[in-house]
Design goal:
The protein is an alpha+beta fold. It is built from twelve helices and twelve strands. The chain has a five-stranded antiparallel β-sheet with strand order 2-1-5-4-3. A five-stranded mixed β-sheet has the order 7-9-10-12-11. It has a two-stranded antiparallel ribbon with strand order 6-8. The longest helix is centred in the middle third of the chain and has 42 residues. The radius of gyration is 45 Å and the shape is elongated. The model has no long low-confidence stretch (mean pLDDT 77).
């Protein structure tokens, strides 16, 4: 019995179908033959009908095998065509029998795969076209740091066609510093295509299960030079404005004093005029010195020395330093972050002082609060609200030495924003939507 099962399992599907068809017809053939020999027929008739019965039996068995195997072969050919990405073949099926339904599903699958294949080809063509046309250099390296893909921008940077670059290591191409950078970095690098300042961005992806690295190099030399040029223009414009404001009266008073001394005889009160003129010159010179010192403070802001800071205690301490009015503090979560406590305190002092100045104009109040932003929970927001008249000119809030307050220096908010950005955060000011006053938002990473 076990031997028969083994023999049966070793038969292929076609022979199993044929064997089952033969076994299904065997009882009928045996009964027919036995009946022929039971009745009184001649030998010729007996053998004729016996051969006809056996022939019909074999013919029907092979026909049954063909009816089962032929559709399977057709399905196999269709699936093979789909595997070879040939979606032009279609199976014929009509009616609602099982085989027709299978053919309809195969045809629908072929149509779906054809649309997806066409979409993938179009997307790939578009991606390659974009990569070739963008004005940045794109490189792909495998796990052995060998170049596997480069666009035209990369060819221009390295000064060689792609066929001479493929397979070379990052060290041979001089791209190790850029490939080793973590996060966006601006590097001074020299390539055969020319030196410059390059922003390097590195990412990872997998292709066929293997890790690859994507390197994107963008030449930011022109943009940085333009930014530097504009920064110098703004600096010269501000310096020139302040210097003219101070030197013009000094020049005028100096000329008047020179004329006074040259007069003969001198007036009786010439010494009084002389002292007044020298006092004005000294005052303007002192103001000019304070202006230059303020600019130096902006340029000499040191890097923050990070240490754990309890934000609640810091906000309450800064609120207590404002003595002109009471700053209300809304209790937030007890949160600790890494920051420079001195710089962060100076930032909040400047913001609270501005809020108090605004609130005192119309008898309003100042409120301070802090919270951890929803979502990732990795960012802290400190808000300072005032009930003052609000902001009238938001475009120049962070322009150095721009101020609307008499006697203001115009560097408080600029210094505060520099401190916030040095901590990886941001400082913004906006008017209240449905009430007078302004809100300052300080966001810092936790």
């Amino acid at each position: 019995m076990t031997r028969n099962r083994r023999r049966w399992s070793h038969l292929n599907h076609e022979r199993r179908v044929l064997a089952l068809a033969l076994l299904a017809g065997l009882p009928g053939v045996l009964i027919s033959v036995s009946l022929l020999w039971t009745f009184d027929y001649s030998a010729k008739v007996r053998w004729t009908f016996a051969l006809l019965g056996v022939g019909a039996w074999l013919a029907f068995a092979f026909a049954a095998q063909n009816a089962v195997v032929r559709p399977l072969q057709t399905l196999s050919n269709l699936l093979s065509a789909l595997r070879e990405e040939d979606f032009s073949f279609r199976g014929r099926g009509s009616g609602d029998d099982a085989l027709s339904l299978v053919m309809l599903e195969i045809n629908a699958l072929a149509g779906t795969l054809r649309e997806q294949r066409l979409g993938a080809l179009e997307a790939t063509a578009l991606l390659r076209k974009v990569m070739q046309e963008i004005d940045v250099a794109v490189f792909t390296f495998d796990e052995g740091s060998r170049l596997r893909l480069v666009n035209r921008g990369g060819e221009r940077v390295l000064g060689r066609p792609a066929e001479n670059l493929m397979g070379r290591t990052a060290e041979e191409l001089g791209l190790v510093p850029a490939l080793a950078s973590e996060g966006p970095r601006v590097l001074d690098m020299s390539f055969p295509g020319g030196p410059g300042r390059w922003e390097a961005r590195v990412g990872t992806f997998r292709q066929r299960g293997l890790p690859h690295r994507l390197l994107v190099l963008a030449n930011v030399s022109r943009a940085l030079r333009e930014e530097e040029r504009q920064a110098w223009q703004r600096l010269i414009r501000v310096l020139g404005h302040e210097l003219n404001n101070s030197l013009t009266p000094i020049r005028s008073i100096a000329g008047s004093l020179e004329s006074l001394i040259a007069r003969e005889p001198r007036p009786s009160d010439w010494d009084v005029d002389m002292r007044k003129g020298l006092s004005v010159i000294a005052t303007r010179a002192e103001a000019l010195g304070r202006f230059m010192e303020a600019y130096a403070r902006l340029a000499r802001l040191p890097a923050p020395e990070l240490e754990p800071v309890e934000i609640g205690a810091l906000v309450r301490r800064v609120a207590g330093l404002e003595t002109r009015l009471a700053v209300s503090v809304s209790q937030g979560p007890e949160t600790r972050l890494l920051a420079d406590p001195g710089q962060l305190e100076q930032l909040l002092i400047n913001v609270v002082r501005n809020a108090a100045d605004a609130a005192l104009e119309n008898g309003g109040g100042v409120r301070a609060a802090w919270r951890v932003l929803d979502g990732t929970g990795r960012e802290l927001e400190v808000s300072i609200d005032d009930d003052g008249p609000g902001l009238s000119n938001t475009a120049n809030l962070f322009v150095p030495f721009f101020t609307t307050k008499p006697g203001g220096s115009g560097i408080g908010l600029v210094l505060a924003r520099q401190i916030a950005e040095a901590h990886g955060g941001a400082l913004t000011l906006e008017n209240h939507a449905a009430a007078p006053g302004c809100r300052a938002r300080l966001r810092l990473p936790l």
